[in-house]
């Protein structure tokens, strides 16, 4: 098996005149899966990636089918990129700043490039809202599995461990209740001074086994297998902490192109991953649905098939 070519940068002021069959924006699991499918459909495909896929920060996932011993996010993405390039997809570093329709062609613009495409797939994902913690400490805690963002992905690894959840309101409570199915020792920590007053009304926390403490988190200390959080009321030690602070959806390009968004900013698509802008599709965490690699892969396959069929129909009309 040959190694994947490295992702290359755009040169100075690159502009393509011939429209691609598909431009994929985002090289996470959704974007790269779509690129594999599209390239195997003998379509011209370019993937532009800003390097911010959440999958790249996964130290080890045991949820990806076919990897019983687990696989890290970077290793999974490298395999997917290699597979896409094997069939002819190009992958380049870059950040698309605007997307517009011009004469039935979508134009993606960045600082030093402009790429026209007959179709565009947005696989731009979301960004986790982080607790107040220095970047280097955050990244080290993430790498050690002491800070975790996906209880669906890795709650199993926290079975019978002490778990802290930073959050409040309905979101924080839902995450704490979910993790309660893995451990009898779950503590919900207010991100600010005190909890949302409605939290106590939602469920009798004592009866559910969830402890509730006031914040904010003043400092984090990393041990070999534990993370310590300093609170105004003292120190607490956990096997891991889950921030339940929500995410910011990277749907600005869809908005720029005129696509409809949900109330929380997700891109609205039909069952074939089409937006309401002709030629514009979306897949992965940026659309409404379960934020899981397996779901992103499935959506990408659906989107790629729709793109292929829509392009075939478009070409038939112009014969």
Key features?
FAD/NAD(P)-binding domain, 9 helices, alpha/beta, 18 strands, 2 domains, FAD/NAD-bd_sf, disordered N terminus, 319 residues, nine-stranded mixed sheet, 28% helix, 24% strand, oxidoreductase, single chain
Task: Tell me what the structure shows.
This protein is of the alpha/beta class and 319 residues long. The protein has 2 domains: 8-127 and 247-317, FAD/NAD(P)-binding domain (3-Layer(bba) Sandwich), CATH 3.50.50.60; 130-243, FAD/NAD(P)-binding domain. 28% of the residues lie in helices and 24% in strands. Strand 4 (45-49), helix 2 and strand 5 (90-93) form a beta-alpha-beta unit. Helix 1 packs parallel to helix 2 and helix 1 (29-40) runs parallel beside helix 9. The chain is elongated. 39% of the residues are buried.
Short account of what is shown:
It contains nine helices and 18 strands. The protein is an alpha/beta fold.
Give the SSE layout.
Elements: E1 8-9, E2 14-15, E3 20-25, H1 29-40, E4 45-49, H2 73-86, E5 90-93, E6 98-102, E7 105-109, E8 113-122, E9 126-128, H3 135-143, H4 151-154, E10 163-166, H5 169-179, E11 186-189, H6 199-202, H7 205-208, E12 210-213, E13 219-222, E14 227-231, E15 234-238, E16 240-243, E17 247-249, H8 252-257, E18 280-282, H9 293-317
Parallel strand pairs: 1-5, 2-8, 3-4, 3-8, 4-5, 8-18, 10-11, 10-16, 11-12
Antiparallel strand pairs: 6-7, 7-8, 9-17, 13-14, 14-15
Helix pairs in contact: 1-2, 1-9
Helix content: 25-40%
User: Major beta sheet, specifics?
Assistant: 9 strands, mixed
Q: What is the number of beta strands?
A: 18
Low-confidence segments: 1-8
State the CATH superfamily name of the largest domain. FAD/NAD(P)-binding domain
Helix and strand run: EEEHEHEEEEEHHEHEHHEEEEEEHEH
The total count of helices amounts to 9
Task: Assign the structural class, choosing from mainly alpha, mainly beta, alpha/beta, alpha+beta, or little secondary structure.
Answer: alpha/beta
Strand content: 15-25%
CATH architecture of the largest domain: 3-Layer(bba) Sandwich
Q: Average pLDDT, to the nearest integer? A: 92
User: What's the CATH topology label of the largest domain?
Assistant: FAD/NAD(P)-binding domain
- Name the overall outline: elongated
Please give the domain count: 2
Question: How far is it from the N-terminal to the C-terminal residue, by CA?
Answer: 40 Å
Gyration radius, rounded: 22 Å
The first-level CATH class of the largest domain is given as: Alpha Beta
């Amino acid at each position: 098996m040959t190694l994947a070519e490295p992702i290359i940068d755009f040169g100075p002021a690159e502009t393509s005149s011939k429209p691609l069959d598909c431009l994929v924006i985002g090289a996470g699991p959704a974007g790269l899966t779509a690129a594999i499918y599209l390239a195997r459909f003998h379509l011209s495909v370019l993937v532009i990636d800003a390097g911010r896929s959440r999958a790249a920060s996964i130290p080890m996932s045991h949820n990806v089918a076919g990897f019983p011993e687990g696989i890290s996010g970077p290793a999974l993405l490298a395999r997917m990129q290699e597979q896409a390039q094997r069939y002819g997809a190009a992958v380049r570093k870059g950040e698309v700043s605007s997307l517009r329709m011009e004469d039935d062609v979508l134009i993606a613009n960045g600082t030093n490039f402009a790429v026209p495409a007959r179709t565009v797939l947005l696989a731009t994902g979301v960004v986790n809202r982080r607790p107040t913690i220095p970047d280097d400490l955050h990244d080290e805690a993430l790498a050690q599995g002491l800070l975790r963002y996906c209880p669906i992905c890795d709650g199993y690894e926290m079975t019978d461990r002490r778990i802290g959840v930073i959050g409040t309101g309905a979101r924080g409570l839902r995450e704490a209740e979910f993790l309660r199915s893995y451990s009898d020792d779950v503590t919900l920590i207010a991100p600010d001074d005190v909890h949302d007053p409605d939290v106590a009304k939602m469920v009798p926390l004592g009866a559910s086994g969830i402890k509730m403490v006031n914040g904010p988190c003043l400092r984090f200390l990393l041990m070999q297998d534990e993370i310590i959080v300093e609170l105004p009321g003292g120190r607490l030690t956990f096997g891991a902490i889950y921030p339940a602070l929500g995410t910011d959806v990277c749907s600005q390009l869809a908005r720029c192109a005129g696509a409809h968004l949900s109330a929380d900013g997700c891109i609205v698509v039909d069952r074939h991953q089409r937006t309401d802008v002709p030629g514009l599709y979306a897949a992965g965490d940026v659309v409404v649905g379960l934020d899981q690699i397996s779901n992103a892969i499935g959506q990408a396959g659906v989107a790629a098939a729709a793109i292929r069929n829509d392009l075939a129909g478009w070409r038939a009309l112009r014969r």
